[in-house]
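Honest question from a wet-lab person: if I give you the sequences of every part of a complex, can you actually get the arrangement of the whole thing, not just the pieces? Trying it with mine:
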Amino acid sequence: MKILVCISNVPDTTAKISFTDNDTKFNKTGVQFIIGPYDDYALARAVELKEQHGGTVTVLNVGESESDPQLRKALAIGADDAIRVNTEPTDSYFVAAQIAHIASQNSYDLILMGRESIDFNSGVVHGLVGEMLGIASYSPVMKLDITGNEAKFAREIDGGKEHLSAALPLVLGCQEPIAEWKIPNMRGIMTARTKSLAVVEPVSVDDSTVLEKYALPAPKGSCRMIPAEEAEQLIALLKTEAKVL
Amino acid sequence: MHTETAENQALIEQTVRDFAERHIRPHIRQWDETQFFPMDIFHQLGELGLLGVLVPVAYGGSGLGYRAYVAAIIELSKVDPSIGLSMAAHNSLCTNHILMFGDEDQKNTYLPRLASGEWIGAWGLTEPNTGSDAGNMRTVAVRQGDHWVLNGSKNFITHGKSGHVAVVIARTGEPGDKHGATAFIVERGTAGFSAGKKEDKLGMRASETAEMIFQDCVLPDSQRLGKVGEGFIQSLKILDGGRISIAALSIGTALGAYEAALAYAKERKQFGQSISRFQGIAFKLADMYTDIEASRLLTEHAADLKDSGQKVSLASSVAKLHASETAVRVANEAVQIFGGYGFTKDYPVEKFYRDSKLCTIGEGTSEIQRLVISREILRD
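Yes, you can. This is the full assembly:
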């Protein structure tokens, strides 16, 4: 089984977010980057499936060289080889087009990624990739097993779960608890150095969106604690001050 | 020589940090309060490759150098110094003694088990009456044909009770004679080898410290580690490297306390502003940072010397002395910055304060470090 795992290179969840160039560029200074947490689940499940069924796991990122540490980590966790499409990921359509291009050159049985990245959170890349390749896509997938040419999986729906089966190939957007995040071991880290990390140039895609400006949410106001026995005061404040009642 | 790239080093640090945050941090307080030695964590550390960091891949280890080893101890100790201490003792003392002085059979028998975390190792030099004066140890090994008979006791031994195997130094010659001691490998379950009291300690409480007792403990000569009479000299060489690991433990402990104090100083408001804006607090933080950075450079220097096979006694003693004294000072100032809250168990610094004190005592007190350093610099 050939599995492609697409990972995004995103700011750590505790990073302080700021912008430069008149709020048109994300300020990367001092920001620690990580593998997108949802992508990390997809990667963990891919490595488990490889251990069960054999095959290969290729990890793919659309990004510049700053993504290499994350690709190396994926290799240390158990991916066999890595591909980086050497370009700044501009929007979901652009990223999906790059992924679809790589995927069309190799016949993968499964293309896994997170349900969404945690920077721009658009959550549409899996759907776009499926459309571009003409194969089915599902998200968010929280359980996944493979038997022969068939995938059995569970998808989160409003208020419950939907259990599905579908023939491979598939594109799946993943989330917990599909697998537990994996921590690489020392030997994995050392072997990762000997695995291939191919850097390929992007295909050209027409700009579909133009970024005008970023804006941060208003800072949180101070918090006022009201003792439980003074619930009336809370209701009064919600009416008069917060004006939500 | 090992050539870990900066990227690899960063990945090793991140890996250990992720593991510590996920599997150690949630339990710190409970382990501390109940003096619980989390054996499961050590099996997991073994799976990660952190219990045979310096052991070559051929013997089931990770085959990394001291730089990576130092980084791993720092990251563990930042979260819980007692786990860093146990990890360091397992690697630097027991495992390293067998790696450096064991024969092929001994290495093949013990190193894969120790490196994988299937077995936890202990190392016994100190005795109730001989700490710094280890040359006068009373535990004796007497040769009887193809066997040795051990009698005596070792105390303050990390994993003295739960360790599956111990390297033990016993006297085989005259007291005080540098060539009067020999090292042995003793497996748990060997007749005549038992565990004594587990110590109830000020700090490092999740790291087990216990007594090991030998009463007519009979060992075949194949359990002898290296040549007869070389045990004490071997131990000094083991401790030369071990000091690098205690320096790393000290840095991790200091960083844990410093980072907590730094965050608190920015958050805590008095007189209408963050206390970090008061010079009295800001200068404390500056001194803490400076001392930690100096300790880190000294320790990395010692690690580099060790990795390149150079003599490391002076450099490792200097690093251990500076880093351990720094850990105590930084943890003390961290409690001061936290004020009343620092004195409570609701905040992490009181534990760093208690844990830090081990650093100036274990694997050679600060006084012994000064002895080693002064001898080296005064040598004609």
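Two things worth pointing out. Residues 1-120 of chain B form a domain with the Butyryl-Coa Dehydrogenase, subunit A; domain 1 fold (CATH 1.10.540.10). The radius of gyration of chain B is 21 Å.
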